[in-house]
Amino acid sequence: MSAYPEPARCTEKVVKVFALKYKKELSTEEKAYLTLYIEKLNRE
Question: Which residues form the PRD domain (predicted)?
Answer without folding.
Answer: 1-44
